[in-house]
Amino acid sequence: MPGAGPKNAVRVVGGDHPIIGRKVKPAPILVALGANLPGPEGMPLATCQAAAAALDALPGLRLRALSRWYRTAPDPPSDQPWFINAVALLEGAVDPAALLAALHRIEAASGRTRSGVANAARPLDLDLIAIGAMIRAAPDPILPHPRAHLRRFVLDPLAEVAPDWVHPILGRTAAALAAGLPAG
After folding, report:
1. Partners of 87 in beta bridges
2. Please, which pLDDT band fits residue 23 given cuts at 50, 70 and 90?
3. Helices then strands (H, E): number in the chain?
4. DSSP, res 100
């Protein structure tokens, strides 16, 4: 992954609260990882493992939990290779737009190019699913992720690492949301 430096910096916000003057606990940050094409690190699993390490190396953030790796069919169904998926639980305080930019840099370092084709095969996909209970309609990133609640490949691993997380708009846990999806 790229070395440290200004272009890789994630602007950290938080720490001492400006009004109450004491530390504020940062919100849990949920990032979905997926890949179905080989990247510079090798097969999709190796790429996802390297991406998890890169997440842990982002300034101001710590990787607190990583789900097990799931092998999932492309969604929507297609003739693409199957995906490797997981969810990472990070801790820290960060500007959402700065974090999204950092995720895009990690993807690019793993060979991801944005073709404009929805659901295309890719060597790495990092989706910012949520930052605690933050609701953000614009600008990007939209939080929580607008389609996370419809994706078993996100909800099942998310329930492993953050079983108490509640979707801030729908008011349901990842496990409850997954239970409402068709069997898969």
Report:
1. 32
2. low
3. 4, 5
4. H
Question: Phi and psi of 17, rounded to 5°?
Answer: -70, 130
Please tell me which residue in 105, 125, 151, 156 is annotated as part of the active site.
Answer: 125
Q: What residue ranges do the domains of the chain occupy? A: 36-136+152-179
Position 117 confidence tier, pLDDT thresholds 50, 70, 90: confident
Is the domain spanning 36-136+152-179 CATH 3.60.15.10? The answer is no
* Residue 78 CB contacts under 8 Å (≥ 6 apart), including other chains: 119
Q: Which of 62, 71, 75, 122 is an active site residue? A: 122
| Residues with Cβ within 8 Å of residue 167, at least 6 apart in sequence | 130, 144, 148, 149, 173, 174, 177
**Quick check: is 172 catalytic?**
no
User: DSSP E strands: which ranges in 36-178?
Assistant: 61-66, 70-72, 83-92, 125-131
Q: What is the pTM of this model?
A: 0.85
